[in-house]
Design a protein that fits this description.
26% helix, three-stranded antiparallel β-sheet, 247 residues, 2 helices, alpha+beta
């Protein structure tokens, strides 16, 4: 006796629910991650084909997308902390050497180079932004980096570069395993002068913890429903096999 297509339906439900729970758990784990963009799990229904009529459909997970709405601004009074106003991204150099984008504006100076807290160099108009020793930095709304160097002339302000700020269409972006966003074609986005920064603040995660907890509870109930369906079908299949043996 062939396995009923309902088993495939229930099995697909279990798998997709587990994937959705994993996505929701990852969102909850990043509630406090600066500039984090919540992940969104979506599904499509696909008919289960075979002998007879196509009376059943199974769930298939689509590509996980991202929620691009801005997170809340959190003042820090640290001049090296920046947040992007509304839409836009800060360009950095990923570990693969290619341009990537982030909303995490917690910056540091390491070995004379302006970097983010992950140790990735922040991109300027002409490459990495170099910072002289003992320089107090200021970051303007347009991304301009200026500073005064101790021991020379504390009143002399030097322009050191400008952070590359971009705003490509969200549909053209994809999230990497490192949490950074890149263009789907792998190219570099053009600078956008309309993107503005807020100095002395960081953008919080846009994950809503209450909504994610409610979603996790709902997914747990769905998982329980699918597993009970599998148990029921397993019991029915066993009874049917016993009847066939007796006849």
């Amino acid at each position: 006796m062939s396995m009923d297509r309902s088993i495939y339906v229930a099995t697909s439900g279990v798998k997709q629910t587990m994937d959705a729970m994993s996505t929701s758990a990852n969102n909850l784990a990043n509630v406090s991650t600066t500039g984090f963009r919540a992940q969104i799990e979506s599904y499509t229904s696909v008919p289960v084909t075979g002998e007879g009529l196509n009376t059943r459909a199974m769930a298939v997970s689509s590509t996980v997308s991202s929620d691009f709405k801005p997170g809340p601004l959190q003042p820090t009074d640290n001049p090296l902390d920046i947040a992007v106003q509304d839409e836009g991204w800060i360009a950095v150099t990923g570990k693969d050497g290619k341009e990537a984008y982030t909303r995490n504006g917690a910056l540091v100076v390491e070995q004379g180079i302006l970097k983010n807290v992950q140790g990735l160099a922040v991109r300027g108009d002409g490459g990495p932004i170099k910072v002289p020793t003992d320089t107090t930095l200021m970051i303007g709304a347009d991304g301009t980096i200026s500073g005064t160097q101790a021991g020379i002339n504390s009143t002399t302000v030097q322009v050191l570069g400008r952070i590359k700020l971009v705003n490509p269409p969200t549909k053209s972006l994809e999230r990497g395993e490192d949490g950074l966003f890149r263009t789907k074609g792998g190219g570099a986005a053009a600078p956008d002068a309309k993107v503005k920064l807020v100095s002395g603040a960081l953008e919080g995660s846009n994950v809503n913890p209450v909504e994610e907890m409610v979603n996790m509870i709902s997914l747990a109930r769905e998982f329980e429903m699918h597993t009970k369906m599998l148990q029921t079908m397993d019991t029915q299949t066993g009874k049917a096999d016993q009847l066939l043996t007796l006849t």
